[in-house]
Write a structure and sequence with these properties.
Blueprint (H helix, E strand, L loop, with lengths): L1 H24 L2 H25 L5 H22 L7 H20 L2
Length: about 110
């Protein structure tokens, strides 16, 4: 169950990065809306990370949390914000995914 909580925390990390990206592209009330989404996503992500670390090792939990956030944010950048999907970006993204999966298997 704590791994599911940790994955949700990572997805909310992607959410706050997405809101941050949208916030810089907007102005006025729309920017305020994205800022509120950023704060809500950030708060939920931190709360879920805290909950997951009560039974998972902090080093593993933090690495997985940041990895999920990094992977999700890169994918959002490629698909939503039209950032380039070069060979090397995809290659290193793949190695990060493999590392997260392997880290889960070697953790108690």
């Amino acid at each position: 169950m704590n791994w599911i909580i940790l994955i949700l925390a990572g997805l909310f990390e992607v959410g706050f990065a997405f809101c941050l990206g949208k916030m810089k592209m907007t102005t006025g009330n729309t920017s305020t809306f994205w800022f509120i989404g950023f704060l809500v996503s950030l708060s939920i992500s931190m709360l879920l990370l805290y909950k997951a670390t009560q039974s998972l090792p902090i080093g593993t939990a933090y690495a997985v949390w940041t990895g999920i956030g990094a992977i999700g944010t890169v994918l959002l950048g490629i698909f939503i914000f039209r950032e380039p999907a070069t060979f090397w970006r995809i290659f290193f993204l793949s190695t990060l995914i493999i590392s997260i999966i392997c880290l889960k298997f070697v953790s108690e």
